[in-house]
Design brief:
InterPro entries: DegV_domain_contain (IPR050270), DhaL_dom (IPR004007), DhaL_dom_sf (IPR036117), FakA-like_C (IPR033470), FakA-like_M (IPR048394), YloV-like (IPR019986). This protein has 22 helices and 16 strands. It is α/β, with parallel strands linked by helices and 530 residues long.
């Protein structure tokens, strides 16, 4: 139990380093944050245990890391612990041999959770351990065991660039593998006698009085209340930052500070995001989350409840912004999860959204490659509903699928319809590089425009027009296409907008142009051609 917490502390100490190891030149420096969130949730489950026997500890680690998992790195990490803990189920004490052989199970479960395992990642790190089980099993005590594990993982991390070209080009090791190394290094530190643990998550402050909830339309589903004790004196800019954040992600906001205690109330679709934001300013003292939809249904009459029978199909979509969320809702999406690039929702966030939809079949649209695995884990964990993950990698693919949505269609036909819609559209996503990097043998300069064609880098240039024209040239003949839709992001400039419109008017005037204010971060323009 305390080894796990020490491992978490050690990871937290190096979180910024792990974030900085990302090699893709878009704003996605969150591997350290994702892994930390996963471990911290495991710690919270451990701290809540009343009975600290081995079985309870293993269950807390397994369940806590799953519910806290964020991004691919977090989900894979949670599966490593799941395999490890399941292998030791029923044990009252764990021998060196049992611990060593549990690593094999950890490796199998982790690899099994990934459709296409990639070497040179955190998977490689756990594989190196599994391949050295006999060496680990031969160690005389746990100090020697963890010393060997650290040595093995150090080599695994060192070897990752030899297996993954992106790492070699950038001159870095894999972030997930390095994060896993720090976790095990923390275990080793604890076994050697460093038993001090500081995770900054213990709550000691007294809660303030309850806030009265005011009834309203259920645009947002969860009534979320937090009491947070500030780490220090509260500055005015901190108050404004939190208040602005709350207004962006919800409504019915009540927020004040009293004696360095934050008290907030907000109606939101993603209570996990609120918690994650506030713990950067202080320690959680109290959390209260109510599903207002269920509360409302609890009080309706029996006759009305009969009208609220479970419908055939329901939709859940991950959205990066309020504008995109409104578009999704207009297309019939039942539950929105805020997330995307740099802000991957946790499995807990996705699961809450799925469970809130009263339907026999639920279709989840992750809309980001780094969220697909988390959504798939949620689908596996829910038994009373048929949850289908439609592996959309961007917002445009989701919109294309939603256009063809038929609420009463059979599941197998609907899934096929979604898949066909995704294959048929052309998507263009435009962002800017946040650092110098090397990608696919090409040097990327900071601040260059990066244009992705169907999620693959198509062109890059400091000149916006030049980058766009090169990508449009690669598309080829689109004479049979009819509509080009542009979702304008919050960072798009009038000059960029004019350049894009002029190119479309001059070269693709046969296409009907539709423009929407998406307000999405990081991507000034998301484009779909259908």
């Amino acid at each position: 139990m305390f080894c796990f917490m020490k491992g978490t502390e050690n990871l937290l100490m190096h979180k910024d380093e792990i974030n900085a190891l990302n090699v893709f030149p878009v704003p996605d420096g969150d591997t350290g944050s994702n892994m930390s969130a996963t471990m911290l949730e495991g710690c919270k489950y451990l701290e809540s245990l009343e009975t600290k026997d081995m079985s309870s500890i293993l269950d807390a680690i397994k369940n806590g890391t799953l519910m806290g998992a964020r991004g691919n790195s977090g989900v894979i990490l949670s599966q490593i612990f799941r395999g490890f803990c399941d292998s030791l189920k029923g044990k009252k004490q764990i021998s060196i041999s049992e611990f060593s052989h549990a690593i094999k199970s950890a490796k199998e479960v982790a690899y099994g959770a990934v459709m296409k395992p990639v070497e040179g990642t955190i998977l490689t790190a756990v594989r190196y351990l599994a391949e050295n089980v006999e060496l680990l099993n031969s160690q005389p005590d746990y100090e020697s065991l963890f010393e060997k594990m650290v040595e093995i993982l150090k080599k695994a991390v060192h070897d990752t660039p030899t297996m993954l070209k992106k790492l070699r080009d950038a001159g870095v090791v894999d972030a997930g593998a390095k994060g896993f190394y720090y976790i095990i290094e923390g275990f080793y530190k604890y076994i050697k006698g460093d038993t001090t643990i500081d995770l900054d998550i213990k709550t000691t402050a007294k809660p303030v009085e309850e806030i009265q909830m005011i009834p309203e339309d259920l645009t947002y589903q969860y009534c979320t209340e937090l009491v947070v004790k500030s780490y220090g004196e509260v500055e005015n800019n901190t108050v404004e930052e939190i208040r602005d954040f709350l207004h962006r992600i919800g409504n019915s906001v009540v927020f004040f500070v009293q004696d360095n205690i934050f008290k907030l109330h907000v109606h939101t679709n993603n209570p996990g995001n609120v918690i994650e934001k506030l713990i950067t300013f202080g320690e959680l003292v109290k959390v209260k989350i109510d599903n207002m939809k269920l509360q409302h249904e609890h009080f309706v009459s029996t006759d009305l409840k009969e009208e609220l029978q479970k419908k055939k199909n329901g939709l859940v979509a991950v959205s990066p912004s309020e504008g995109i969320s409104k578009i999704f809702t207009d297309f019939g999406v039942d539950s929105i999860v805020i997330g995307g690039q740099t802000m991957n929702p946790s499995t807990a966030d996705i699961k809450i959204a799925v469970e809130a939809v009263n339907a026999e079949n639920i279709y989840v649209f992750p809309n980001n490659s780094n969220i697909i695995l988390a959504a798939q884990q949620v689908a596996k964990s829910i038994e009373d509903k048929n949850v289908h993950v439609i592996p959309t990698k961007n917002v445009q693919q989701c919109v294309a699928a939603l256009i063809r949505y038929i609420p009463e269609e059979d599941s197998d036909i609907l899934i096929k319809t979604f898949e066909e819609a995704i294959k048929e559209i052309i998507t263009i996503s435009i962002t800017r590089a946040v650092r110098d990097a090397k990608l696919n043998g090409e040097k990327i300069k900071k601040n260059e425009y990066l244009v992705f064609l169907d999620n693959k880098l198509s062109s890059h240039n400091l000149d916006f027009k030049a980058a766009l024209l090169k990508t449009f040239e690669k598309i080829g003949d689109i004479s049979e296409r009819e509509i080009i839709t542009v979702f304008v992001g919050k960072d798009a400039t009038p000059i960029e907008n004019n350049i894009l419109r002029k190119i479309i008017d001059e070269q693709y005037n046969h296409l009907e142009l539709e423009t929407y204010e998406g307000g999405q971060p990081h991507y000034p323009f998301l484009i779909m051609i259908e």
